[in-house]
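To: structure desk
From: M.T.
Subject: fold request, one chain
Message: Could you run this one when you get a chance? Sequence is below, nothing fancy, just the single chain.
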Amino acid sequence: MFTLYGYNTFNPIKALLTLEELGLDYEYVNVELGKGDNKTPDYLAKHPLGKVPVLDHDGNLLTESGAICRYLANISDHRLYSADPLKAARIDAMVDTVVLHVGRWLAVYFWEEIICQRFFRREPDQASIDEAAGFLSQQLPYLNTVLEQNRFLCGDEVTIADTIAYAYFQIQEATSIDLTAYAHILRWYGEFSERPSVTAVKKRLAAAGGLLPYPA
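Reply: Done. C-alpha cells follow.
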C-alpha cells in the first residue's frame, strides 16, 4: 500500500505524477502547510524537517521527491527509468539539469510571486526575478533544443525526467514566466498536460486547493 503525504506544490506533484504514470494504487493525504499540519509530532515522526512529500510504502517511509520517483520506477520494472546503468545515468543527468538548474530558477518565481505575496505579504523582489530570468535565458534554449529533437526529455518515451520537469514548468501558469520563445518546450508541455496522469492528479488535488494551478 502506498500513501503519499503532500501539498499542492511542485515537489509532491512530481511524486503524484510518477505514481499516476506507473498506474499504482495509492492514498493521498493532504498536509495543509498553512495550518501547520507539517509541524505536528505525528508528521515530524515521518519527516523530521516537516517537508513534503513523504511516501509510506507498507510502513517504510521515504522522503525527497527525486528519491521517491526513482524508487517507484525501480520497483515497477524500471518503467519511467531504466535497468541499464548507462540509460539510467542519462535520465539522472536530465533530472539533475532540471532540478539543479532550470527548476531552481523557475522556483524563484514561485517563491517571489506566490509564497512571499501570500504568506509574507510583500511584493516580489525584482532583482531576484531578474537574476532567475537571466539564468533561464541561458538554460531554456538547451531544453528547447532537446525537445526539438525528441518527443520527451529523454527520447520517445516518458521518464521520471518528464514527471519531475512538468511539476516545475506548471509554475509558469501562475507566475510571470514567459515561455513564448520556446516553441518546443511549449509543445511538450501542452502534450504532457493532456496525459491521463495530469487529469488524475488534478482530481486528487482539486478538493485540497494549494499554491499551484491545480485546478486551473
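Reply (cont.): The mean pLDDT is 94. Let me know if you need anything else for the meeting.
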